[in-house]
Each structure stands twice: as C-alpha cells, then as structure tokens.
Amino acid sequence: MLKKLFALATMTAITGLGASVAISGCTSTTEEVTTSDAATDAKTDAKPKVDASEEPADTGPEVCPKPGDVTEADVQQAFDGPWKGPGAPKNVCTQQDIDKVKALFAGSQQVKFTDIQGALSQTCAACVFTPNSAANWGPLVQFSDGYYQNYAACYAIASNDNCGKNLAYFDICTNAVCDETECGSQQAVSACVKKAVSGGCKTFAAGIQSGCGSALDTLDAQCGNLFQLMGAVCGGGLDGGIDAAAPK
After folding, report:
1. Other CB atoms closer than 10 Å to residue 231's CB: what's the count?
2. Residue-wise pLDDT tens digits, 83-125
C-alpha cells in the first residue's frame, strides 16, 4: 500500500509531471520541481512513497525498482479515493494573478504555498487550491498533510480525463517503486522509471498510451510549468490568452 507524503509548505521550482518522458522516450524540456525543508520541514517529494513498514530490510540500489505491481487501488488509497478530473476550464484567474505568482518565484528561491494563495484574488485562489473532497481537482489539491501538485489536470484539459488520471497514477506509482533513497541517485531514479514502464507501473503506462495517444510532446509543452497549469484550469483554458512563460 502507499501512504501520502505531500509537499507540506514550499516549492522551489516549477515543472510539469514528467511521467510522459519515460513513456515516449523523449528528453524533458521542463524545469525540475522540488520542495524545500530548509526552514519549514517540508518533505522533498511531493508524491506518496511506499510505507516504510513495508520496505524490505535491504534498501540498497538492488531494490530499485521495488518489486511487485502497484494497483489502482493502491494509488487511490494514497489519494483517499480516485483522482478527480478538473472539469471544464474556469475563467477566474487573470494575467495579473499569474504575474503575481511569477513575481514570487522571480524574487525568491523558496515560495510557500500559502504565499501563492495569498497572492491570488479570492476567486482565482478558490480555483487553484481545491480540497481533496471537491468534486473537481484544481492545480493544487489540499490534503490534511499538505498539497498535491496536480499537473495531470492540465493534461486532462489538453486531452481527456483518462489521460490525466493515468499520468497522475503513473507519477505516484513511480515515486513509490523508484524512491531516490533506495535507488541511490537521481540518475538511478530516471533509469528506474523507464524500467517501471514495463514493470510495476505498466498498467498506468499502458493507460497513458491509450488515454493520451501520440501527442505527449505537445501535451508536455502545453503543461510544463505551474503557470500553464493555472492558466489551463483556471484562466480560460489552453487558449485563454494567459502568458504562462516561466519567469527568467
């Protein structure tokens, strides 16, 4: 089984899901996302891991990827239920909202989720931040122990809910079977994720292939950063006119 381990307080960079890179074999052009534990005790992974009580005694690189298949029920246990699609795009976030969040990241290497929420207008924030109990999930899903960065919502709008769901499930699955502690390095994690495509996460990899089709490069380009995610879900959709380029 999986347990939730979400980003508790901060983001230090902006990126999309990255799961489709392993499926298509392409090189990702998105920036890396991490969370900071420097001042907030936030965890370094934004996605659930395998429960430590279930890990094998030997946690060296030879258990990367972890054996066994991750099921949809496992992922849903981590989400307290199924992943929920974003619904139709809302037009409640303006360019000014997006620019305020851009300014946060341009001015600091450590941005709190609460700062993002505070920078947005009330109606925009209500769309961007959604509780996990909501009927539709927005860009940042609030759980009792943190936030889930729901890039899959952008993929769902750009393609369909089945595409988004399988990307989210693959993302969580690979985080479970390819933990950096067991793999030993980020390079080993990347190799592990590619193995997981035909291994423990093959169900969701196949779901990506059938749900998203052959347009993964295009989807990655449309959903590669937080601003694109916010614009797609809450700023009028992919063609809503939001300038979603990452700050330089």
Report:
1. 29
2. 999 999 999 999 999 999 999 988 887 889 999 999 999 999 9
